[in-house]
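Why does residue order matter? Because the sequence determines the fold. Keep that principle in mind as you read this record.
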Amino acid sequence: MARRGDPDPGGPFAGTGASAPGNPPQGSGTPAPLSPASSAPVPGRPVRGSAGGRPVMAALDLLGRRWTLRVIWELHRNGAPIGFRDLQRRCDDMSSSVLSTRLTELREAGIAASTSTAAQPTWRLTALGDDLVTAMGPLLDWSRAWAERR
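Structure:
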């Protein structure tokens, strides 16, 4: 029985993996192990905060990793494919191993893609990555309003 204030199945926490107090978490029992070849959070696989890999929790896990949002921002800001070293410089000379990991995760998630040129691979956002940047627009607007109030 739901208590007053508990989210109902169609409430604000639907699909987030959060369960109402006193109710067991949703899921299908023991989560499947992550593939050792892939470290990118994706919907349907266990992620931080959701044993069932709820889509919003997978997105928050991916976007909450250090440097991920910066890499997405720089890929968006550039507008055209960008080489690894140029992207690294734009990200304040972050370590090449972290950048490589983040790009791999973003590629596995379908947010970024690499294209080969004669000299080196270049990186760009996919249509899904562009959709993500568009979806983050209201957060950008909110953050600007927040900054003005402080």
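The two ends are 42 Å apart (CA to CA).
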